[in-house]
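Please complete every field before forwarding. Incomplete forms are returned to the sender.

SECTION A: IDENTIFIERS
Entry label: holo-436
Bound molecule: flavin-adenine dinucleotide
Molecule representation: SMILES string

SECTION B: INPUTS
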Amino acid sequence: MSAALHLQRGLRERLRRGEAHLTLVEPQAYLTYHPLLAEVAAGTIDPRHVVVPLRRELTECRVLTARITRIEHATRRAWADAAGPGEAPAPVELGYDVLVLAPGSVSRTAPVPGLAEHGRRFSTVGEAVGLRDHVLEQLDLATTTRDPALRQAALTFVFVGAGYAGVGALAELEDMARYAVRGHHNITPDDLRWVLVEATDRILAEESPELAEHTLAQLRERNVDVRLRTTLESAAGGVMALSDGSRFAARTLVWTAGVRPNPLLRDTDLPLDTTGRVRCLGSLQVLGPDGRALPGAWAAGDGAAVPDPHADGAPCAPNAQHAFAQAELLAANVLAALADGPHASGIAEYRPDTPACSTSLGLGRAVAHTRRGGRLTGRRAWWLHRARHLRRLPSGERRVRILMDWAMTGLFSREVVPLGRPERRERPEQADERPG
Ligand SMILES: Cc1cc2nc3c(=O)[nH]c(=O)nc-3n(C[C@H](O)[C@H](O)[C@H](O)COP(=O)(O)OP(=O)(O)OC[C@H]3O[C@@H](n4cnc5c(N)ncnc54)[C@H](O)[C@@H]3O)c2cc1C
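SECTION C: PREDICTED COMPLEX
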């Protein structure tokens, strides 16, 4: 969406005169701004405000709500399918001159017994709202039950995978639950048990090691049980069995164990690296077989292996900072190539700013590192984190709505009412009288 917005701006007159066409194919009718999803789970942002409707912002663009299933760049053709899950596929062929590929990544899964039955994911607005309701329902259950084992399981929350999603969701929900239990006569914050399980020896692999260390120290200070070099072996029967030998019951299991490049990339004729990302030059052009740019093919974001000059040319980490910066440069480079050809002098290399990293850890709590090497925690870090994300959000209207949400939370504190399952339908009662 971000690349399309910049291209729309640069091509506006030609789009209006019908000399150029811009088509965005995306299965959702909106962009989800993932870095603020944890605040949706915590009830500080309205769920609708972290999504940006594509058709509202991309007024000169053809938006197709469909999924690309295959791309054959050699013949400049792609196939889109609008069929829902379980429906017969109805692919539509699309021809193009220039391809911009940015399908992001998908969650990594593992064959862990019991995971399918007990695990939850955390990458969509629906999942964030569902998890929030589930956590609040566990507090209600723990207050009511007289069974000590059930109460313990209800108050135990396990997150597997300490990337952005796992750390952000755990920290925000822990903070929300700490606030919510004030209304429960028989639960204290010390009764809640939060466990973060991570297979590697560090958290937040997409961020700098310094920020990760700093965040880890903050979580441990809040009594979050962070288990590094540990994996979930089984969740069968709702009993968590970890590789360090511990076993305990938990009614909440959130699976956020990493991401992998979108499998769509394998259904293209473009070159991939060993991890499955599209191989790109620093200009964001896809690498051709001769080591030069493949004409008409561009890629950005989590699905693109773009050399990072700050990491000796290793591919950029999959994060929002790179994705948004690459989208902007990609659009400028496409416009330069349209004007002067694929080797135009106006095509620039991706040179990211020094990473500016931060993580939100609850209301008024965050850790942030400034570009000059400063380390912040608490409210100052939190405001800096919010300002960075607001600036990046590609919609002025959504920025205002989120600012209003934060102002309302400041005035009235957060909302801790579970909405229940919205899809549950009551049967209409039998009519007392016959019509007429
Ligand atoms: C819960 C969560 C929290 C995060 N927090 C942070 C954070 O705090 N800071 C940070 O820097 N990063 C964070 N990230 C990572 C960040 O969101 C990603 O790095 C960034 O969104 C990548 O951008 P992208 O455009 O490559 O992919 P995406 O934003 O994932 O966009 C890809 C789009 O392609 C669409 N798509 C997929 N398949 C197809 C197909 N076959 N056809 C058509 N369209 C398709 C998808 O629907 C999606 O809209 C977080 C991620 C998650 C899930």
